[in-house]
Amino acid sequence: MTVTDTPSTHGATPPPPPPATISYEGEFGRNPLAEAGFGAMCRRLPGVLGHTLRMAWAVDRTAVVLLLVCQLLTGAAAAVVLAFTARALHHVLGTGSVTERLHGALPALVVVAVAAGTGRVGGALAAYADGRITPRLMTEADIALVTAVCRVESAAYGEAGFADRQEAAEVGATRTRFMVQDAQRFLAAAIRMVTAGGVITALHWTMLPLLLLAVLPAGVGAVLSARVDYETHYLTIADRNVRSMMRWWATYSRFGDEVRANGMTGYLVYWYRALSDRIDRRALSAAPRVLRISLATSALGGLFLLGTWGLLAWLAATGRVALPVAATAVVAVQTTLAALGQFVLHGAALFHTSLYLADMRSFLDQAAERAPRRGPATVPERVDEIRLEDVVYRYPGREQPAVDGVSLTLRRGEILAVVGENGSGKSTLVKLITGILLADRGRVLWDGIDLAGADPDAVWKRTALVPQNYARWPLRARENVTLGQPRTFDDAPVWQAVDAVGLRETIEGLPKQLDTLLAKEWWGGAELSGGQWQRLACARALYRRTPLLVLDEPTSQMDPRGEHRILLEIKRIAAERMTIVITHQLQNTRLADRIVVLRNGRVAEQGTYEELAAAGGLFAELLSLSEDR
Ligand SMILES: Nc1ncnc2c1ncn2[C@@H]1O[C@H](COP(=O)(O)OP(=O)(O)OP(=O)(O)O)[C@@H](O)[C@H]1O
């Protein structure tokens, strides 16, 4: 047999590469539970219960009170049912005629019926209270997450593991659904266990410890299995995160053309399956461990249960307990066994849920730590100058700074063009000027106020930005213009902004004009073309009328008429503000008062269009390349 490097079958190609393996080092590389012992895990329960109670209390106090009262009621009802069943059995199995015995048992049976009914009503009301609390609890958890993520310093997104902690927190937020239910069932089982345990101890003191031994292994098994499940979850967070992102990109209708016309479907589906298989393999590799735990704990529990029944038989056979008492004991054993079983299983379920909720809480703490803490300084409505002093910024995990010692001054009324090759630091520079990122070194001063000490909301009230990747908000056309600055109910300024970008005809042609929902996916929605969306993004920035206007590649998708119109508008309104335009269309930099050319994060040259075009430097080189067609 010979082995060749060349494919032997007609046109066979090597298999496509499998999805990259993602693993993290450092803080997030280790499962926080990896070293936690069984006792430590169980000690988390009171904390989880307390937290659940506090959260539930905050959303609906009446429902919480109702829930607790109902739990007590159902627990007490269960005890009454058991105690009076014992009494009834005492009569039924006693001496006398059948009628006498039944007659004697009747009052106890009535009490049993009433108590059982009360227990059922209590159970139904508890479920109702849970139904009132849980949806709001989920909403609160969800909103807390969204708010936390929207508020963190932008730099946090770049930190290793941040997105995965967020994904873990999202799972935690969805698990909130089980939180009240688990806590409620656990409490109910605890109350039933205490009451039934009391009854059974009264029959013979050895019964309860034996029963406890019979169910404890199942509880230990459930907790250990929950731990294995969480370990698998932890190991696959990164993969699931990437998979859900990929799923969105692959199935989102806006990218459908690219997927189809580039023949990506096959590979995407292959990729999706390969990653899913990898996730499944991790889950399946845990299955034997779960089976071993389950078999061992079931066997142990079964042995103890056998012992309990044996003891009961021995007590009855040797006359140590009377027959009616033994019969009651059978009922009591069953009830206590069920209560104990539920107690440990719901305890384990609560513990399981708590693992995920802990992820959510730790992410919220992490996000809170990364919330801007810059200082109280505010920025006046009018800003006359922005000065950068030797500003340096390096993205986390990158060796080279993206902006490396930039100093420049921008004055009111001035239009600054920033140019440079891909990756030269233009967008990063703009993020530093607008305070989205804070400089690692050096200062960005707005009329002498250092952005490192200024309240970011106060700064962002004064900025308008058309980023390179702007969002196409699935909102009405009006909100797509006013988002971030809903000023009045008056549409006139909205139309002004729409006119400024030459979009009036388009908007008037929409089914509901400004009220049209710009989301093709939804019924009643409409879709715009790429350039029209870009015009809308520009309209949004112009509508804000802020002292700083930043446009990053604002006309890359526009036709010449649209581009011309926007550039004229920028010039028209330039006197009242500072304007920064990033562009690769070097002809467009003619409108700027000054051009800054970046290379590797540094200012390579600056000057007017004419000066730079004649200087023979990088700008002149790029200009000649753009003209060499
Ligand atoms: N979020 C980020 N995390 C890490 N590195 C980043 C990030 N954003 C940009 N960079 C890196 O910083 C450098 C500067 O990027 P920047 O986006 O500022 O360049 P640019 O001049 O705007 O490029 P382009 O012309 O392609 O838009 C690049 O090397 C880029 O890889």
TrEMBL record:
PROSITE patterns: ABC_TRANSPORTER_2. Keywords: ATP-binding, Membrane, Nucleotide-binding, Transmembrane, Transmembrane helix. It comes from the Bacteria. The chain crosses the membrane at residues 63-85, 105-128, 186-205, 290-315, 321-351. Its main location: membrane. Residues 1-20 are annotated as: Disordered. One of its GO terms (molecular function) is ATP binding. PANTHER family: ATP-BINDING CASSETTE SUB-FAMILY B, HAEMOLYSIN SECRETION ATP-BINDING PROTEIN. The keyword Isomerase does not apply. This is ATP-binding cassette domain-containing protein. Residues 1-11 have a biased composition (Polar residues). It comes from Streptomyces thermoviolaceus subsp. thermoviolaceus.
